[in-house]
Design goal:
heterodimer; A: alpha+beta; Aldehyde Ferredoxin Oxidoreductase,  A, domain 1; Aldehyde Ferredoxin Oxidoreductase Protein, subunit A, domain 2; 3 domains; six-stranded mixed beta sheet; 17 strands; 14% strand; globular; B: alpha+beta; Ubiquitin-like (UB roll); five-stranded mixed beta sheet
Chain lengths: 608, 74
């Protein structure tokens, strides 16, 4: 198969057995790569009802046909598993340089199975693969682990590691790479920790055979040229994702004090331009990227450095905690990364706890003495550490995610636990943005934004409208955008530089030798979307419409301040959105794919 | 001398296919957008002479202003 590494590496942590098998041609044909490979193998190999943190669950890392290639941003890999946070499908995309090395080492997927009896790390040097003792690394932060391996093996080796959060099975623990890139969401780090796998170190030196080398060179160069010629390249590169912070504040989408509002009175102190002036020291890009959006920052007050913060972290660990201080946000980011917990979920959990504290639902006795008011920076730092180490009553409670924490505490706190399917909501307040609200409700991993980012569309056509066109837009985005995670390339060149997506078509054809239009690839996206739905259904007997409901905050409590003051989506409109969505997807009234839909998508056999 | 507003991406549609337009200095960016018929809430990003500014920035003589929407998010 042209454009693929050709092999799957299977590592059994329990027995130490390491084996290689050819990448199935039909899997490449029907699922292409990346998260397509992830869900296909997860569905087939992980038995129904497997404990997400037990030996039957698997952690599957996959590259795609564009990974490691002459393609802008061809540095993405996918980490798929059964989520310990949600009990459903988890898929986390990671940038950096890991993917290219993995593919050059010869692997389209790495399947990690079983549980090791002791801490280990996986060393991959092309075909030579070893499990080695990691007892001396257990307990260390992810940054220290990466530094140690860079010194031991050299700069060319790429590392993915967990911090204490993963070791302690924090249900939203992340996996860190390249001192600031993460496979962030859904608890992939907890699954790695449950397997006692501290890190993966990889180096590859092989080449990847393509179908048409000259066509590949031309198509790749055309993509790079389009990026270099793009309007806004310099501005996007200068600010990266932080560019949207001021805009979100202006339009009422910036999560503020546990999503009770969408505009923050201290917003200017965390805007992208403030960050650029105060803490950014350089730009940092991933493999093959012509527009490096990563920002490397120095927080002078703390004497520390971090890659970031990205917009999501600014929203969730800044305004959502009432913190108007970019240095403090950067330091919270650094702590979370090093300790190995997802900043989005952790920010939500701390914000929920702050609201509980301010409402008297939690007292100092419950918070282990922390004065947990919005804006308290030191309390935020302390609580992030407690969560990662499962220290204290509150740290341990929040380590299980906001849904479980609210169910345990009760007293109405469930109404302001901001999550869908058990995953904490990422950085867009959706009191009055019905497409974006629907995107969160129906996202295949829980309340995450990156499948269908539709908020500009809401503002274009009318933010409170509930019409079939909005639903169709969300579905199209869900089928199309995640295809970048399938192909193994970053979507931001298309998203923010607006390069013509058709430029990818000849590149894919030259690499794989197979002509596929975007329509063809969107059909693959649709198949993958439905297969993830089947996984949720299989793993949760009561799965259906009730799992697609947003936090009540978005239909019960209009913000009192900011651009969306007084605005809310009614509960009836929320249900209308779902009705239209299910109908357009070919699902029944409970949100389950119909037999006809499965047949059409060639999923009937796998579902049976 | 008037300031120049350059619209990128989808915002060009509000300038009837043109890439740029002139507005009098002394207006804020927000006021200039209103004059040109560009919906302010669609403009995510304002760059004045290569530096990001807020929409409350008051246009100076011969400023070059780039305005962009954000279509995709993270």
């Amino acid at each position: 198969m042209k454009g693929y590494a050709g092999s799957i590496l299977r590592v059994n942590l329990a027995t130490g057995q390491i084996s290689k098998e050819p990448t199935p041609a039909e899997m490449a044909r029907d699922y292409l790569g990346g998260r397509g490979f992830g869900i296909y193998q997860l569905f087939k190999e992980v038995p129904k009802g497997a404990d997400a943190l037990g030996p039957q669950n698997k952690l599957i890392i996959s590259t795609g046909p564009l990974s490691g290639m002459l393609i802008p941003g061809g540095g993405k890999c996918d980490w798929t598993t059964k989520s310990p946070l949600t009990g459903g499908y988890a898929s986390a995309s990671m940038g950096g340089h890991f993917t290219a090395e993995m593919k050059y080492a010869g692997y389209d997927s790495i399947i990690l199975e079983g549980v090791s009896p002791k801490p280990v790390y996986l060393l991959i040097e092309d075909g030579k693969v070893q499990l080695l003792d990691a007892a001396h690394l257990w307990g260390k932060g992810a940054f220290d682990v990466e530094v140690e391996f860079k010194h031991k093996y050299g700069e060319e080796y790429q590392i993915a590691a967990i911090g204490p959060g993963g070791e302690n099975l924090v249900l939203y623990a992340c996996i860190n790479h390249d001192f600031g890139r993460q496979a962030g969401r859904g608890g992939v780090g907890a699954v790695m920790g449950s397997k006692k796998l501290k890190a993966i170190v990889v180096r590859g030196t092989k080449s990847v055979e393509v179908a048409d080398p000259e066509g590949y060179r031309k198509a790749g160069m055309a993509l790079y040229k389009a990026c270099k010629d793009a309007e806004g390249l310099a501005e996007w590169t200068r600010y990266g994702t932080t560019v949207v912070t001021s805009w979100c504040d202006e339009v009422g989408a910036l999560p503020t004090r546990n999503f009770s509002a969408g505009s923050f009175e201290g917003g200017e102190k965390i805007y992208g331009q403030t960050m650029r002036k105060e803490i950014v020291i350089t730009d940092k890009g991933c493999f093959g990227c012509p527009c490096p959006c990563g920002k490397y920052s120095h927080m002078k007050r703390y004497g520390t450095y971090v890659e970031g913060p990205e917009y999501e972290t600014i929203g969730l660990m800044g305004s959502n905690l009432g913190i108007a201080d970019i240095q403090a946000v950067g330091e919270a980011n650094r702590l979370a990364d090093d300790l190995g917990v997802d900043t989005i979920s952790a920010g939500n959990c701390v914000a929920w706890a702050m609201e509980c504290y301010e409402k008297g639902i939690l007292t100092k006795e419950d918070t282990d003495g922390l004065e947990l008011k919005f804006g308290n920076i030191e309390a935020t730092f302390a609580l992030i550490k407690n969560i990662a180490h499962r220290q204290g009553k509150l740290g341990n409670l929040l380590a299980d995610g906001v849904k479980r924490a609210a169910e345990k505490i009760g007293k109405g706190s469930e109404r302001f636990a901001i999550q869908v399917k058990g995953m904490e909501q990422s950085g867009y307040a959706t009191h009055s943005a019905t497409s974006m609200l629907l995107a969160y409700m129906t996202c295949d991993v829980g309340a995450h934004h990156n499948r269908a980012w539709a908020i500009t569309y809401d503002l274009q056509v009318g933010r409170s409208l509930v019409v079939p066109e909005k639903v169709a837009r969300v579905i199209w985005l869900q089928n199309f955008r995640p295809m970048f995670d399938v192909l193994g390339a970053c979507r931001l060149q298309w998203v923010e530089l607006s390069i013509d997506r058709d430029l990818y078509v000849p590149a894919m054809e030259a690499i794989t030798g197979i002509h596929r239009t975007w329509e063809d690839m969107e059909a693959v996206g649709n198949r993958i979307w439905n297969l993830t739905r089947l996984f949720w259904m299989r793993e949760n007997e009561d799965f259906g419409r009730s799992w697609d409901q947003p936090s009540p905050r978005f239909f019960e409590e209009p913000p009192k301040t900011g651009a969306t003051a007084g605005q809310i989506t009614s509960y009836e409109d929320v249900q209308r959105l779902l009705d239209m969505y299910y109908e357009q997807r070919g699902w029944d009234n409970n949100g389950l794919p119909t037999p006809a839909t499965l047949e059409k998508l060639n999923l009937a056999q796998i579902a049976s | 001398m008037p300031a120049t507003i350059k619209a990128y991406g989808m915002l060009k549609t509000y300038l009837h296919g043109q890439n740029e337009a002139s507005v009098e200095h002394g207006l804020t960016i927000r006021q200039a957008l209103a004059v040109l018929g560009i919906p302010s809430e669609l403009v995510a990003f304002v760059i004045v002479n290569d530096e990001q500014k807020s929409k409350d920035y008051c246009l100076q003589d011969a400023d070059i202003v780039k305005v962009m929407a954000v279509m995709g998010g993270g």
